[in-house]
Amino acid sequence: MRYMMEKVGHVLDLFSFKHPEWGVSEISQTLAIPKSTTSEIMASLATQGLLARTEVGRYRLGWRLFHLSQVLLDNTDFCIEARQVMRELVERWGETSHLAVLDKGQVLYVEKLQGTPAVQILLSQIGGRLPPHCSGVGKVLLAQRSWHEVTSMLEEQELKPFTPHTITSFERLAQELEEVRKHGYAFDHEEVAVGLCCVAAPIYDQDGHVLAAMSISVPAYRFYPKQDTYMGIILKAAHCVSESLGYRKEKPKS
Question: In CATH, which of 3.90.870.10, 3.50.50.60, 3.30.420.40, 3.30.450.40 is domain 76-244?
C-alpha cells in the first residue's frame, strides 16, 4: 500500500506548467514503473477526478484538484488574511502582489493579485514554482532557516542565472540572507526577469514563526526611484497580516 501511494504521489508530481499532459508510456518510462501498474494508477486517479483523460488517451490534471486547492486556500488563515491586505495593496498602488511559501526547496506561489497598470509576470502564476535564490519572497523564506538547512536544501539545485543579476554563488547568497535577517525584507533587483524588481517581507504567526512571504513587484523604471517607498509599503502590509494572525513584535528593552 505504501509503495502504491508513493507512486501515486510521484505521478502527480510530474504534471507542471511546462509539461501539463502525459501518456501512460511516458510516465512508465520516466518513473520506471511497469506500464500495467502505471495504467492502473492513472485510470484510478481519473475515476476520482484527480486526472482527466483526453480524447487521444493522454492525461491532464482533473478539476477535483482545483476544488481541493480552493478548500486548502480558503481554510488557511494566513491566506485568508493576506488576500484582503493584498487587494487593498493592489487597489491603492496598482502593482502586482504575491504570496508565497517554501515547499520542497522551492518557492510556491499561493496567491497573486495584479493591478491594471501592472506588467504581466508569467513566471509567478498561482501554483507556479521558482528556485528560492533569485526572488524577494524566496530570500525572505530562506533567511528564516539556518545556513545548514539552506545549503542542504539547495545543494541539489543549481543557482540558476535567470538574468545577469541573479545570485549564482553560495557565498554571495549567504551575504544576502544575512542582510535580509538584519533588515527584515529582501529585494529582487531584476534577478528573475530583466526590467522587473520586487521587495518582499515575512508573515509571522502568533509564535513568531515565518509562515509565508508577501511581495510587491514593480517595473524597474518605477521601482528604483521609489525603492524605499515600496519597501515601507510591503513591510506595513506584511506586518498587518502578521498582527491579524496574533503576532506581536517584541519592543526593544530600554
Answer: 3.30.450.40
